[in-house]
Structures are given as structure tokens and as C-alpha cells.
Amino acid sequence: MIRLGFLNALAGMGLLVTLFAATPAQAALLLYHAAMNGPSEAPPNASPGIGTVYLDFDDVANTMRIRTTFSGLTGNTTAAHIHANVTATPFTGTSGVATTTPTFVGFPQGVTSGSSDNTYDMTIASSYNAAFVTANGGTIASARAALLTAIATGRAYYNVHTQTFTGGEIRGFLVVVPEPSSMALLGTFAAGAGWRAWRRRKAKQV
């Protein structure tokens, strides 16, 4: 329960940071990352494989850069993509594929370790799973908005599929990487909330 509460807090912070970063004065990169492993799969597995994902979404150019590294897989890679569902419970369960199927263009195939660094145009249909577009408003714009919302609220994960684990050998939910300015703003908000709580406690003691 503590871990889920902490993850839900991260999801809320992700949405706040996304909103702050998306204002006209701050329009730039939305930054997320994920740590992938077998125990994070659903159902969990004992794969020794691990991986890291960095996702940078440019909300002006509408491009999504994804950098991945992975190693120690028990089977050769067959696919990698992002699963997302805006109505899912954050940081748990499974969702359908949101991005290109069957796999991201440029992701290494047939290996147990590797890396990739690719940028995708999120204004074109081929960057999405057609079923995800249909389920989220039927347009590329609505699908893009749904994907961003899912990522920002802990409802999207990066999944690497292999011959050994066809449903996914390692995965990780994407979480926000706050920009310094956003962290400062959130820190100010938190400090203000803490000060008000202290004042209320002092008032009750009088």
C-alpha cells in the first residue's frame, strides 16, 4: 500500500509537471524514464534481464525520442512498444499497445542485449496502434493526447517481448523526470502546504 501510494503521488506529480511544461512560456520537452525488469511484468517473471528507457516528448514539434538499453534477457527480442490505457489503475495491470505495431522501428531484433535511440513523428498514423487510435477518439490528435495523459499519470509502460516470454520479458512504467524549474515550483508549493499545516497544528495547541 505504501509503494502504491508513493507511485500514485509520482503519477500526480507527473501530471502537474506536464501541465506546467506545456504552458506557452514553458513549451519544450516532457521527460520520462522507466526501469525495466522481469518482476515488473504481469504476471511477474524471474528473468535476470534489465533495461532503462528515456522518453523525451517535444510538445512543439510533436516528436517522441526514445532511448533504450537492455541486457541479460533469456530469449532473443521480438518486439518493443508502449502499452497505455488512460482508464487503467496507475502502475499496475496490463493495457493494449498504444504505439507502432508490431514493434518500434529501429529497436534491435533477435538479441539478448542492445540499445536504441530513435525519434518518432507523433503526428502520423504509423506511430500508433490503429486500435489505440480508434479507442481514443478516432483521430491522431486525440490519440496523442491520450498517450501523453497515460504516460503522465502512470498508466503507460514500455514492454520488451522475447522468444522466451512472448507476452513480455521486461517492462517498466514510465515516470516523470521533472525539469529544475518545475521541481522548484513544486518545492515551493510543498513548502507552502507544510507551513500551513504547521500553523494549523500550532493554533490547535493554543
In short:
The chain is α+β, with helices and mostly antiparallel strands and 206 residues long. The protein contains four helices and eight strands, in the order H-E-E-E-E-E-H-H-E-E-E-H. The protein has one domain: Immunoglobulin-like (Sandwich), CATH 2.60.40.
What's the topology here?
Layout: H1 2-21, E1 29-37, E2 50-58, E3 63-71, E4 77-84, E5 114-121, H2 130-135, H3 140-152, E6 156-162, E7 170-173, E8 175-176, H4 180-205
Antiparallel strand pairs: 1-2, 1-8, 2-3, 3-5, 4-6, 6-7
Written account of the structure:
The chain has 206 residues and is α+β, with helices and mostly antiparallel strands. It has a single domain (2-180), classed as Immunoglobulin-like. 32% of the residues lie in helices and 27% in strands. It has helices at 2-21, 130-135, 140-152, 180-205; strands at 29-37, 50-58, 63-71, 77-84, 114-121, 156-162, 170-173, 175-176. The protein is globular and about 40 Å long.
